[in-house]
Here is the input.
Amino acid sequence: MFQIIRSRPVADVVVIGSGAGGGTVTKVLADLGVNVALLEAGPMLSPAKDFKEHMWPYQVPHRGSGEGGASYFGRGRPFGWFSAHAGGWQLEGEPYTSAESSNFMWFRSRIVGGRTNHYGRISLRFADYDFKPHTRDGVGTDWPISYQDIAPYYDKVEAFIGVTGSKEGIRSAPDGIFQPCPPPRVHEVLIQKASGKLNIPCIPARLAVITRPTNGRVPCHYCGQCGRGCVTASNYSSSQVQIFPALKTGRVKLITNAMARELITDDTGKVTAISYVDKTTRSEKQIRCRAVVLAASSCESARLLLNSRSPRYSNGLANSSGHLGRNLTDSVGFGLGGQVPALKGLQRHDSDGMGGGHLYMPWWLWDKKLDFPRGYHIELGGGYGMPGVGSFDSVSAQHEGYGESLKRAIYDDYGTHVRFAGRGEMVPNSDTYCDIDPDVVDKWGIPALRFHFRWSDAELKQAEHMEQTFTALIETMGGTVTQPLEPVPDKISTGGEIIHEVGTARMGDDPSSSVLNRYCQAHDAKNLFVADAAPFVSNPDKNPTLTICALAWRTAEYVAEEMRKGNV
Amino acid sequence: MSDTTRREILQKIAAAALAGPIGVAAAQEVHEAVAASGAYTPKALTAHEFTTLKKLCERIIPGASKGGAAEFIDLLASQNRELAAIYTGGLGWMDHAMQRESNATFLAASPEKATALLDRIAYRDKATPELAAGVRFFAWARRMTVDAYYTSPAGIRELGYLGNKGMSEFKVPQEAIDYAVKRSGLV
Here is the structure.
């Protein structure tokens, strides 16, 4: 039997999860004088020890291929050995399953800061029309809030974390509070010219990277390695930008290696405590609270609520609508690479820059009638990246022979490739959701999630459109298409692969069709809030992180205000 | 950007780099010193296999030994039985093929004979079906030798990668832009 250790109330608010949502809530509540206990399932982050920024491949004997050359067998660390995440598609002892005829990939990073330590930093505001998709095209569901409700919070988040960009006045890509974006690289200049010929806007990137001193953080030093974690905190990660500073206020108690098991409710239906596994000692603990904010990630938060059953909530906590776990979406992903002869023989120069494209293409056909609803944006790749294991796989795979001719081919190939990646909107469908797998538990006995996933025609047609567009861009540059970036049979990413899973506890004004109200407060339990991407009603063609932060900021202010009024 | 801010950034980077990076040139000296001392003892391969692999790697990429290619492959093979089998099997195949033809191992064969064998397995477009195992092995050796060399200080320098440095302002040489734009015809 476990020994259950109950602690006295330690905080006004317990926040579960320390990624974009949890980090933002913790920072905002601490600034407002609220005491927070922050539960993180992984360990503390030590940037100096954990981040592999600036490391050369030859500084590790396997050069980045992983122990035993894992990457040669398709078993390497996702995003490369040097990436800053602490997790992956599979975590030992923490299974999830896919239902029959479904395939879903779930990326988890167990560490303070979660997936914000390594993510792509793309920071795009949703457009005004993104909040009213059903009104606009009759598909999906409208959000209970509008762009005007969230715009002030986009302002606050951008000003605080720092986002690059430029004022463009494009309706599908609302302007924000921007820091200057560094100039485009050579291949990006070519892409911009090609996109101009195709009437596709190609504008400075909106990345959560600072190019000016911001709140005590030094600007980007342009090493191109954001994904490895930034030791100077010049890009946004909730760990370095929000949580470490919040810890200094003295109002935040961070509890690491704490895997939440369930929320405990009282007779009135309010959450009174959180039961969690202290992974270090494998003992069961409880922490009491006045209010709880879930920010464990969209699917992990849904799992926690589905597992919080009681006589009153036999279907899972906050699930009287039956919508918990439903309305799950991921972004539509498709990538294509090309080789551009115009880049051959270019004088070598340092093209590292920010970790990501310096330009991007917002959706440009938002006012056109197409054979699929919604749209996508385009991300760019290319340049002289730091050579790594696999950098010249395409040459090795195609070049016949060896010796000096192979060396020449590699020298000539280096820096001549461009890559396009589309990230588009998936419309929620009734076959796509997560629930609890009755047969599987994790190593702590917590029931595991089971995923059901299906792309509809809308997404498949959108991915086809991406392929046509990218092909046209490559050919307009005088290049040739090499191979898809993500070679999958259907020419579309696998569900979950883009790591934009959202929507599992959507917000709405009608408690019969939504889990949360317009303040991300559970309809069924008023001291329960959700601050990750679970509240999203749709998943527009803008990566979710900026909107997670903006919604979380708004939710945190609401929590503090309701507590002050005595309503929570 | 002011000099103070710039200095602060570079100091931060220097501090961050303390645990890790050393310059490409210095790293190459270390690599070459280790290689010259012959200090490496094969972990997965026999002495004969390892020397044979070294010769093969050097033929694939002249200079590969400066990049520690054989050591890289042997080390990984010592951690991975599947990979070890690919190399012991492949090297054995090469020796056997060589023996049948000229009564010598790949290592002992004359340069002309060794080249003749390599030429039969290094060109997938011309290879005959009975050479399939050799062709497949050569593809592994080519891919991993390329990786080893171009992730070594010597290979990185040869490619002309100039990054992984702090920059206070990101700039792109105008000549480079002009060159590519002109060649692309996208004016």
User: Anything to note?
Assistant: The longest helix of chain A spans residues 457-476.
